[in-house]
Design goal:
Number of helices: 7
Helix content: 10-25%
Shape: elongated
CATH topology of the largest domain: FAD/NAD(P)-binding domain
Number of strands: 19
Distance between the termini: 28 Å
Order of helices and strands: EHEEEHEEEEEHEHEHEHEEEEEEEH
Radius of gyration: 21 Å
Largest sheet: 7 strands, mixed
Low-confidence stretches: none
CATH superfamily of the largest domain: FAD/NAD(P)-binding domain
Number of domains: 2
């Protein structure tokens, strides 16, 4: 097995990973980025992006990630395709195995592996992803102004997303499989007192319907009693949670009950000195490209300071 020693290893290639690489490269840390199974991260599944500063005419998720990657490479970042298969964070330098065939010893490690949105697992959901199916109302709600949409879920996140969409859309259906909401009382009251939100109790989604060109135009629901209902919508929003991609590190890195990496105060520091976390893998609240990029900047600066202090 071949081996390599590097100053700064960045695992993950979304806004957090690439921004960390830009800052680390400019600090002469010669960073290496491993892109993972989805180069560019989950943002590459988003078609239009209108809320990232610096793109007055908007852009696409893939174009933005291509820009960030090119900027990181411009300053000397080595961006590589590969999956981390094993890590040992018990001592520095940290031992990281890539694709079970390459061994890396890293003086600092930035974890930017992101989080994966939970989906229902139906075929039509994948078919219309990016064409009406979304897991982020804050990211994509703007494109459905004045239209009818649906939100799946009954927790705080679903209520927050439905409330946000209600301020933009004509009507918001909440598809709730139970006969009650799991959200806090305050969020429940907000939803129930919003005139253009309609809760469809005890329904599951059987199929999302649409056209190849126009995207989503409806959803077929099944009630607990077996009866079916068709709703006409243009946007279908998943709000049933996210899963942080932190399992690989959980033996050494502290996480909360949901698996999000815990960082110290207003920093990117984990409980292991020299290991830092950035982006959605440590952010259960905002999950935006701009906040991920900001935390990537923090992680690179924290890594640079750590190396300076531990020469």
């Amino acid at each position: 097995m071949s081996s390599e020693n590097i100053k700064c290893l960045i695992i993950g290639s979304g806004p957090a990973g690439y921004t960390a690489a830009i800052y680390a490269a400019r600090a002469n840390l010669s960073p290496v980025v491993y892109e993972g199974i989805q180069p560019g991260g989950q943002l590459t599944t988003t078609t239009e992006i209108d809320n990232f500063p610096g793109y007055p005419n908007g852009t696409t998720g893939q174009a933005m990630m291509d820009d960030l990657k090119a900027q990181a490479e411009r300053f000397g970042t080595s961006v590589r395709f590969g999956m981390v298969s094993e890590v040992d964070l018990s001592q520095r330098p940290f031992r990281v195995i890539i694709d079970n065939e390459k061994e890396i010893y890293a003086e600092t490690l930035i974890i930017a592996t992101g989080a994966t949105a939970k989906y229902l697992g139906i075929e039509s959901e994948e078919k219309y992803k990016g064409q009406g199916v979304s897991a982020c109302a804050t990211c994509d709600g703007f494109f459905y102004r004045g239209k009818d949409v649906a939100v799946v879920g009954g927790g705080d996140t679903a209520c927050e997303e439905a409330s946000y969409l209600a301020g933009l859309c004509n009507k918001v259906y909440m598809i709730v499989r139970r006969d009650e909401l799991r959200a806090s009382k305050a969020m429940q009251e907000r939803v129930k007192n919003t005139p253009n939100i309609e809760i469809l109790w005890q329904y599951n989604t059987k199929e999302i319907v649409g056209t190849p060109i126009g995207g989503v135009n409806g959803a077929l629901l099944v009630h607990k009693n077996g009866s079916e209902k068709k709703i006409d919508i243009h946007g279908f929003f998943l709000a049933i949670g996210h899963h942080p991609n932190s399992e690989l590190f959980s033996k050494w890195i502290d996480t909360n009950e949901e698996g999000y990496i815990i960082t110290e105060g207003k920093s990117s520091k984990t409980n292991v000195p020299g290991v830092f976390a950035a982006g959605d893998v440590q952010d259960p609240n905002y999950r935006q490209a701009i906040t991920a990029a900001g935390s990537g900047c923090m992680a690179a600066m924290d890594a640079e300071r750590f190396l300076t202090e531990n020469r």
